[in-house]
Design goal:
Layout (H helix, E strand, L loop, with lengths): L1 H8 L23 E3 L2 E6 L5 E7 L3 E6 L5 E5 L4 E5 L9 E2 L4 E7 L2 E8 L6 E4 L1 H11 L2 E4 L3 H6 L6 E2 L5 H4 L10 E5 L5 H11 L4 E5 L2 H7 L6
Parallel strand pairs: 2-4, 3-9, 10-14, 11-12, 11-13, 13-14
Antiparallel strand pairs: 1-2, 4-7, 5-6, 5-8, 8-9
Length: 224
């Protein structure tokens, strides 16, 4: 496990975030594509009414066909952001809650469907359940936060593979495709994104620490 952690730490390369259209992995129900750990949603110059279906935990960015910037407002989620955000800011808006939400984007409006990830190969665990999983089956543990977050404290035995470079490096996890994998981040959002990538790539036993390492630490479980 320590050797794997060293391998994963060697993968910390910043990849550019490209914008492109189409459906994800051939799934027409989910909008946009995952690129660089972000969900890219296309905004064309067609009808003003928009409708997107995404997952809770997605980090959303918009690709505007005509350039420019627009105000993105989701009143029920208390989101009011200029998109795209300035380069000095985090470029995304995080979707923390599932449900159906009305939104406006510039002079356009629409509905945002935010879904929970459901799959027979996917399981959400609370901190105590994750601790039992580690004790009983010794899963591969993946921390999908940033290097600085990892250095500040991580679950013992966890390897670092940030969500921003996760898709590009999943091939290196191929030997674990039929084994138990526990994924976590700070609060359970980035780990949901990474879990979805694993499931879409055929990994069969994926566990997500639903409320992240914050829940782990609140339960006085060990970090290093």
């Amino acid at each position: 496990m320590k050797l794997l952690g060293m391998i994963l730490l060697g993968l910390l390369v910043v990849f550019p975030i490209a914008a492109s259209g189409g459906s994800e992995g051939g799934t027409t129900d989910i909008s946009g594509t995952i690129e660089g750990g972000l969900r890219v949603l296309e905004v064309d110059s067609g009808p003003d009414a928009l409708e997107y279906t995404i997952y809770r935990g997605d980090y959303v960015v918009f690709n505007f066909e005509d350039g420019g910037s627009y105000q993105f407002r989701v009143q029920d989620l208390e989101i009011d952001e200029t998109m795209p955000k300035p380069e000095t800011d985090k470029p995304y808006v995080k979707m923390k809650e599932s449900g159906d939400y009305k939104f406006t984007l510039g002079n356009k409006s629409g509905i945002l469907h935010v879904l929970e990830l459901e799959n027979p190969n996917y399981h959400e665990l609370k901190a105590a359940e994750a601790a039992e999983l580690i004790e009983n089956v010794n899963p591969l543990i993946l921390d999908v936060r940033t290097p600085d977050e990892y250095k500040a404290g991580h679950i013992p035995g966890a390897g670092l593979l940030p969500v921003q470079v996760f898709a590009e490096n999943m091939a290196k996890l191929e030997e674990y495709k039929e084994q138990d994998i526990l994924v976590y981040c700070a609060s359970g959002n980035r780990s949901t994104v990474a879990s979805k990538m694993l499931i879409d790539s055929g990994f069969s036993r994926v566990y997500n620490l639903r409320y992240g390492i914050g829940d782990w630490m609140r339960n006085n479980l060990p970090v290093e």
